[in-house]
């Protein structure tokens, strides 16, 4: 019978979940709080004989514990202990939330995800990086294996700060003589390879490599030897992703190639900027069928995988509105109404925007079934049908904002979603698009107190589009959930209506 292994008298280790250059990850039970956790163990071989490794490890763990984001794995504890292997070796350990899902590495082993998914995951990774960078934390080893996608569809970033501890604990002579590289060569920035200053721009380069892999199925550089791979990272220009995967829009090429610029100063200015660009790309991405890769004997990596994060009190994303936002949501984020508005039977959804002179913008809502089709034409709520009877949604307010009162008990039993949209009257501004509309923005408010509960929006509307969905309410069993989901429509209000099953009469010529 295997001997029970307990760390520091508190964490009972179970099966090993993963192993890499930076240590091993174990499933464990926190005996004090009676909860499942994951324990990452970093052995002496990783930090050498550096007497300050523990100090830096604890420093990084404290920084991580202070990072408040649903897109970063939560750190619970840190310490040093005898691993109990009979060798008397001291190890450093980090206790994290136990995750469920699969890594992006596992995703890439089986499929090329749709671009709309890549944009959503990429934005969420950027939100994690933005929070970390604002706190002075640089990841240093961002790669598909360090990003987990949970059952809730959210991407979460793992192993912040661990690479920094190892980098400071590995002297250059030992690194050169043994060939050990702190980081993952296929995803490392040129300055990291050259031993230069590693800042947040280095993480953006690694993000570019990750996005490249998700779009094309392989990293930008795949040299036949480590030496050639590192030289390519430092000197070679990557092939545009659109040349390796048919149908990739030019905007993806521009963003990814900008992230992969060799000089750090030529990369985008921040993770937040990249998040906004990915959000714009998601609006025009087609949720096409996933591209399955040819069958091959793939052994899924033993990875640990995420619990659902309760995001009720966390700032999720930047808010483009000048008045800020109480709880800004990132694309793909979902929030239960019961968490932000417990017991309420109604709420107000307010949509606002800033349009150039002469541009006429309208808001609308569609009450749709599980297939995304309106229950009837009366369930299309817009300027010509603001107060339909028996629908549960009414429209009111004046430009440049519109308000919808949603009475949840009055929504029909067949209603599965309420989709909110903005559209441009092309007659008012021929040849224009929503790029001329600033801060398209949705707020969910307490109907009784007119107090904002959460918000979702963009710095500007998408170019080439005259219609845009800006979020939706989704029925989830017996509860309603707000979902931060947006899609752009080149055909404006008519295309939005037709897409959701409204019978649109063509105008007589």
UniProtKB/TrEMBL annotation:
Its EC number is 2.7.11.1. ATP binds at residue 40. It comes from the Bacteria. It holds the Pfam family TerD. Coiled coil: none annotated. Residues 11-283 form the Protein kinase domain. Keywords: ATP-binding, Kinase, Nucleotide-binding, Serine/threonine-protein kinase, Transferase. This is non-specific serine/threonine protein kinase. It comes from Streptomyces chisholmiae.
